[in-house]
Automatic annotation (TrEMBL):
The keyword Lipoprotein does not apply. InterPro entries: RmlC-like, RmlC-like_jellyroll, RmlC_Cupin_sf. It comes from Asticcacaulis aquaticus. It catalyses: dTDP-4-dehydro-6-deoxy-alpha-D-glucose = dTDP-4-dehydro-beta-L-rhamnose. This is dTDP-4-dehydrorhamnose 3,5-epimerase. It is an enzyme of class 5 (isomerase). The lineage of its organism: Bacteria, Pseudomonadati, Pseudomonadota, Alphaproteobacteria, Caulobacterales. Pathway: Carbohydrate biosynthesis; dTDP-L-rhamnose biosynthesis.
Length: 180
């Protein structure tokens, strides 16, 4: 596996090695020792999966508050997404800054989103399936989010935001300024 870091310290883009032939491919999608040595020393406790039927579906920006903050290792099983992490660590030199990466089923890329970041994605293909490992279980009482279109963050989503498909919850998330 290879990985690259971003200008915002914490997230990492991971590229597993695909071993392929005319039958298809094989890859090691996750290896605990390698991940701990190269990315972050965390334990994953839950796996989640979502399917979004329509292109332009935006899910996020989501995070959980302490003591249930979650790190997420995200990959696309079918289709493609533009995946985003926003630094919400108070006191961080990059607070409010975001990184983004395109994850595809064919490319097998994975994005590590550590605790202290809000996470979201938009679908680039129909019937997109996303799988992610998390470092803490879901807690309704610690569920939180930010507005996906907050100009203070300035995410450059690769879809028409006027036509974006959102949950009722994601339409009314607060702005970044509520965290300052």
């Amino acid at each position: 596996m290879k990985f690259q870091n971003f200008k915002v310290i914490g997230p990492a883009l991971i590229q597993p090695k695909l071993i392929g032939d005319d039958r298809g491919y094989f890859m090691e999608a996750f290896k605990d020792g390698w991940f701990r040595e190269n990315i972050d020393d965390v334990t994953f406790v839950q796996d989640n999966q979502s399917m979004s039927a329509q292109v332009g579906t935006i899910r996020g920006l989501h995070y959980q508050t302490a003591p249930f903050g979650q790190g997420k290792l995200v990959r696309c099983l079918k289709g493609a997404i533009f995946d985003v992490a926003v630094d919400i660590r108070k006191g961080s030199a990059t607070f409010g800054q975001w990184i983004g990466a395109t994850l595809t089923a064919t490319g097998a890329e994975q994005l590590w989103v550590p605790d202290g970041f809000a996470h979201g994605f938009c679908t680039l293909e129909p019937n997109t399936e996303v799988f992610y490992k998390v470092t803490n279980p879901y807690s309704r009482d610690h569920d939180a989010g930010l507005a996906f279109d907050d100009p203070a963050i300035g995410i450059e989503w690769p879809v028409d935001l006027a036509k974006a498909i959102l949950s009722d919850k994601d339409r009314v998330q607060p702005k970044l300024e509520t965290l300052a």
